């Protein structure tokens, strides 16, 4: 399974990449949103899932999600972010889902939780609403 991972925190990225690779995932990591988006477009049909942070230094993950979801509507997009507290409430999560996100996990979630959610997203593709 091939995962595109866009995360600017190198320590978090290193841990997640080791975790995912240790469980058989092929991971490509990018620390900037724009380079991650370029990698997405170079091979958009080859990705099995995307894991994306919202707070990136060059472009918000909120901007990237609808672009990716428009190109690949059934591609699971897991938001893995440290946003919390009153500045990120339920309405914000609904906006993410409406823009194409498949799931949301707070950082730091345990590694097993990340693996479980990712596996579920890949094995049970989202239903299309017609």
Structure description:
The chain is α/β, with parallel strands linked by helices and 130 residues long. It has a single domain, classed as Rossmann fold. 44% of the residues lie in helices and 18% in strands. The protein has helices at residues 10-22, 33-42, 61-71, 90-99, 111-123, and strands spanning 2-6, 26-30, 49-52, 77-81, 103-106. Strands 2-1-3-4-5 form a five-stranded parallel sheet, with helices on both faces. The radius of gyration is 13 Å and the shape is globular. The mean pLDDT is 86.
Summarize the structure.
The chain is an alpha/beta fold. 44% of the residues lie in helices and 18% in strands. It has a single domain, classed as Rossmann fold, CATH 3.40.50.
Q: What is the topology?
A:
Blueprint: E1 2-6, H1 10-22, E2 26-30, H2 33-42, E3 49-52, H3 61-71, E4 77-81, H4 90-99, E5 103-106, H5 111-123
Parallel strand pairs: 1-2, 1-3, 3-4, 4-5
CATH topology name: Rossmann fold
**Shape from CA axes?**
globular
Q: Can you summarize the main beta sheet? A: 5 strands, parallel
Count of distinct strands: 5
Mean pLDDT: 86
Overall CATH architecture: 3-Layer(aba) Sandwich
CATH superfamily annotation: Response regulator
**Based on the structure, what is the oligomeric state of the protein chains?**
single chain
How many individual helices? 5
The spatial strand order of the largest sheet comes to 2-1-3-4-5
Low-confidence stretches: none
* Proportion of residues in β-strands: 15-25%
Structural class, by secondary structure, is alpha/beta
Q: What's the end-to-end separation, in Å?
A: 28 Å
């Amino acid at each position: 399974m091939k995962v595109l991972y866009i995360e600017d925190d190198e320590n978090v990225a290193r841990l997640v990449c080791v975790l995912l690779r240790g469980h058989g995932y092929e991971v490509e990591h990018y620390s900037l949103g724009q380079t991650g988006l370029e990698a997405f477009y170079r091979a958009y049909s080859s990705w099995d899932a995307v894991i994306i942070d919202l707070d990136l230094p060059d472009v918000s993950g909120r901007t990237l999600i609808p672009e990716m979801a428009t190109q690949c509507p059934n591609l699971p997009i897991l938001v893995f972010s440290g946003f919390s507290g009153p500045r990120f409430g339920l309405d914000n999560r609904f906006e993410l889902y409406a823009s194409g996100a498949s799931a949301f996990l707070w950082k730091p979630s345990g590694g097993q939780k990340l693996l479980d959610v990712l596996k579920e997203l890949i094995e049970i593709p989202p239903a299309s609403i017609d």
